[in-house]
Amino acid sequence: MIMKKTMFVLLLAVFGLQAHAVQKPNIVFFLVDDFGWGALSCMGSPFHETPNIDKLHEAGMTFSNGYSACTVCSPSRAAILTGCYPGRTHLTDWIAGHKKPYAKLAVPNWNMKMGPERITLAEALKEQGYKTQFVGKWHLMLIEQKNLMKDHFPESHGFDVNIGGCSWGQPRGPGKYFYPWKMPNLEGGKEGDFLTDRLTDYAVDFIGQHPTDPFLVYFFYYTVHGPIMGKPELVEKYTAKLKTGDFKGYNPRYAAMIQSLDESVGRVMDKLEETGLADNTIVVFTADNGAVGNLYCGGLKGSKALSFEGGTREPFIIKAPGIKPGTSTVPVIGMDFYPTLLELIGAPQKPEQHQDGVSLVPLLKRTGGIAKRSLYWHYPHYHKTKPYGAVRNGDGKLIEFFEDGALELYNLKDDPAEENNLAQTHLEKAMALLKELKAWRVSVNAQMMTPNPAYDPQKTHSRGKAKGAAKNTPSVKMKGLLP
Question: Which secondary structure element, helix H or strand E, spans residue 397, and what is its range?
Answer without folding.
Answer: strand 396-401
